[in-house]
Amino acid sequence: MRAALIDELGRPPRPAEPPDAEGEGALVEILAAPLNPIDIAVGAGKFFGGHPELPFVPGCEGVGRIRGGDGGLVYIFSDGLGLSRNGAIAELARSGSVEPIPVPGGADPAVAAALGIAGLAGWLPFAWRAPLRGGETVLVLGATGTVGVVAVQAARLLGAGRVVAAGRDAARLERAREAGADAVVPLEGDGLAERLKEACGGEGPSYVFDPLWGAPLLAALQAAAPRARVVNLGQSAGAEAAVTSAAVRGKLLELYGHTNFGVPRQELAEQYHRLVSHAVAGRLTVDVERVSLDDVGAAWGRQAEGASRKLVVIP
Ligand SMILES: NC(=O)c1ccc[n+]([C@@H]2O[C@H](COP(=O)([O-])OP(=O)(O)OC[C@H]3O[C@@H](n4cnc5c(N)ncnc54)[C@H](OP(=O)(O)O)[C@@H]3O)[C@@H](O)[C@H]2O)c1
Description:
Elements: E1 3-5, E2 14-16, E3 27-34, H1 37-43, E4 61-66, E5 73-77, E6 92-94, E7 101-102, H2 109-114, H3 117-129, E8 137-141, H4 146-157, E9 162-167, H5 170-178, E10 183-186, H6 192-200, E11 207-210, H7 214-223, E12 229-232, H8 245-249, E13 254-257, H9 265-280, E14 288-292, H10 296-304, E15 310-314
Parallel strand pairs: 8-9, 8-11, 9-10, 11-12, 12-13, 14-15
Antiparallel strand pairs: 1-2, 3-4, 3-6, 3-15, 4-5, 5-7
The structure holds NADP nicotinamide-adenine-dinucleotide phosphate.
NADP nicotinamide-adenine-dinucleotide phosphate binds at residues 36-38, 117-118, 121, 142, 144-148, 167-169, 172, 187, 211-212, 216, 233-237, 258-260, 306-307.
């Protein structure tokens, strides 16, 4: 079997021929396995949950077909995949103790894979963690990343009244506009809180989608409307933010944390089905770049620097 293999923490994986995937669960012939920020953190030894024993195959998710199964596509994720046991950037991977999740018919494997960890992170805050109430003004921070571009579209599909996209990369902000944002706000420059509030109109955002934390979150809290809900799911702009008590209590803000790993399995499967069905029907798009296993090392470096589209390894 061919797979990506990490021999040393902090170094990119290389194509190799490790032994076939062992352990529990269905044996899945992988057709597409994305690179995500979490894989880079695990491979660098910087993920709080540790890493599998070296050398290991990275990759926390994949789409493929169960060997000996009915031929339908399945999505595998969790139960330590790529975190405490070998991952999915390989020709073969094990689902572990959890059932593989069926992929809706007609889905492209690379798109279905990109809508896993990244797609669900853009979707689940609105659909499950702090469900949109309809007509809300949503501010999407980090709208230039894959998670953020999905979030813009998810907010639209799930009934937001106004969607404002904020990010650093100018070209990707335009992509967010094409994806359905009513206004875009560059994160860099002076007066961010005022600019965010103005773009949102009225009292400011009533819902903040935040994969960044750090300084952009502080500005968003300042811009937020009274009783706004804020969902954090990442820390791309910094692990810490000096949030004052007054900023939260004065406006009765509600702060939620989200991780895909904390979602009950049945809920995850149902929401994944809804999300990928939107893509199959053409109502939601995600930018995917397919890379071969031979190029996994270079792709790894690009993801570490912040790729402008979802890099998906085709083993
Ligand atoms: N909680 C969960 O379950 C979950 C699941 C998936 C992802 N995440 C998190 O969500 C975040 C985005 O993931 P992704 O797949 O979309 O990654 P990505 O495609 O690599 O995008 C990275 C995003 O972070 C932004 N960014 C990076 N450094 C920044 C900084 N210093 N200041 C402001 N913005 C910065 C980038 O902005 P520019 O392009 O404009 O520079 C881009 O929008 C990551 O933190 C990831 O760990 C969480």
